[in-house]
Specification:
The chain is of the alpha+beta class. Helix content is 43%, strand content 26%. Strands 1, 2, 3, 4 and 5 form a five-stranded antiparallel β-sheet that branches. A three-stranded antiparallel β-sheet has the order 6-8-7. 23% of the residues are buried.
C-alpha cells in the first residue's frame, strides 16, 4: 500500500499531503531488526507498507522470557510507538521486525500537526487505542485464566498460517513459560488431533 492509502489522509489538501510526505523517511528493514527497546523515547511513528512487527514485553516476573502483546501489519499502527512519540515518554514495550518490512517514519512534528488539523486522524487514533487495549485485555485474561494448552493453541491460530516454522524454545520465550512445558503441551495437542509436529515445524490440522 502507498502512504496515502491510509484513509485518514483523504481529508487533507494535496499540498498538505506533500508536506507530510516530504517530512517522512522511507525505510526497509529485514527480519530481526529492532525498532525500539522498552525504555526508549520514540521520535517518529511507523506507517507500515508491508511486513509485520511484533510488540512484546520482557518482565522480570517471568524470568528470561517474553510476552507478545500484539502484531502490526500493513495499514495498522502501534499504540506503544504512538503514545511514546506523542507524549515524549519512554516506551512500555519493545518492537522487532517479525517479517521484513517497508514503510515510512513520520516525525513527531508532522504527527502533532495531523492531530491538530485532521479529525479523521484523531478518529483513527481513538479506534486504534480501543483495538489495542482489547487485545491486551484478552491477553491478560488468557494468561490468568486459560490453561497453557489453550493459550498455545490460540497463539498458533493467531499466526494465520497452516505451517509455522518455529522452535519450542522460541514459543516458550514468547509465551513466557519453560521449553519443557511447551513441548509437553504440543504433544498433548498432537494426540488430540489439533496439530502435527515435525522438526522445527508445526502443522495446524
Amino acid at each position: 500500500m502507498d502512504l496515502f492509502e491510509y484513509e485518514f489522509f483523504n481529508d487533507l489538501k494535496q499540498e498538505e499531503k506533500e508536506k507530510i510526505k516530504e517530512s517522512s523517511k522511507y525505510i526497509s528493514l529485514p527480519i530481526g531488526s529492532q525498532l525500539y527497546f522498552e525504555g526508549d523515547t520514540n521520535q517518529d511513528i511507523l506507517f507500515l507498507k508491508r511486513g509485520k512487527v511484533k510488540v512484546y514485553i520482557t518482565p522480570e516476573s517471568i524470568g528470561n522470557g517474553e510476552v507478545t502483546l500484539y502484531y502490526i501489519s500493513a495499514g495498522e499502527q502501534c499504540l506503544v510507538n504512538t503514545f511514546s512519540t506523542i507524549t515524549q515518554t519512554q516506551t512500555l514495550a519493545s518492537a522487532v521486525v517479525d517479517e521484513s518490512i517497508e514503510g515510512w517514519l513520520i516525525p513527531r512534528e508532522s504527527i502533532m500537526w495531523l492531530l491538530n488539523n485532521s479529525q479523521s486522524y484523531r478518529n483513527f487514533k481513538i479506534e486504534l487505542c480501543g483495538q489495542r487495549l482489547q487485545i491486551v485485555l484478552d491477553l491478560i485474561k488468557s494468561i490468568k485464566f486459560d490453561q497453557l494448552d489453550q493459550r498455545l493453541l490460540n497463539w498458533l491460530y493467531v499466526q494465520g498460517k497452516n505451517q509455522i516454522k518455529i522452535t519450542h524454545e522460541k514459543i516458550a520465550a514468547i509465551l513466557g513459560v519453560s521449553r519443557e512445558a511447551i513441548s509437553r503441551n504440543l504433544k498433548k495437542l498432537e494426540r488430540a488431533g489439533d496439530l502435527k509436529l515435525s522438526r522445527g515445524c508445526i502443522t495446524i490440522l
